[in-house]
Amino acid sequence: MVGRRQVLIGAALGAFGLCFGRQSAVARETFAISHSDAEWRKLLTPDQYTVLRREGTERPFSSALLKEHRKGNFACAGCDQNAFSSTTKFDSGTGWPSFWAPLKDAVGTSTDATLGMVRTEVHCSRCGGHLGHVFDDGPKPTGHRYCMNGVAMKFHPLAG
Q1: What is the pTM of this model?
Q2: Which residues, including other chains, have CB under 8 Å from residue 101's CB and lie 6 or more apart?
Q3: Active site annotation includes 127
């Protein structure tokens, strides 16, 4: 007979496994740019490493890129690949830089089932760095909201 204690312990262990025990589908892919964990730690700031390599999330409203309104491209901070154009950026009110579409072939997606919810994770197609998540509540023409971590990106202004 299973008692209340066993049920609670089982539920806690299951939740722990969901939150911390998964191996990302992205981690199993091969990318054009790859480094060892130690090399990534040397190349990135601690915040960039947490987001790009450990699928962390920055605090809302903390990124300078949230208020970046110049024309240009937003690139992956891990490998400098352009990922989003300023022409698709919009103010979602969520506290993270948001876009209604990525540049062609710049990002990939995978299912993220952590924290008790299912979301679509967005990663750089060249280095696999975690950029954020995409949701189906964005503006036309796509209806998508690519909610990106500003710390995971760099901004390249267009000349002129």
Answers
A1: 0.82
A2: 84, 88, 142, 144, 146
A3: no
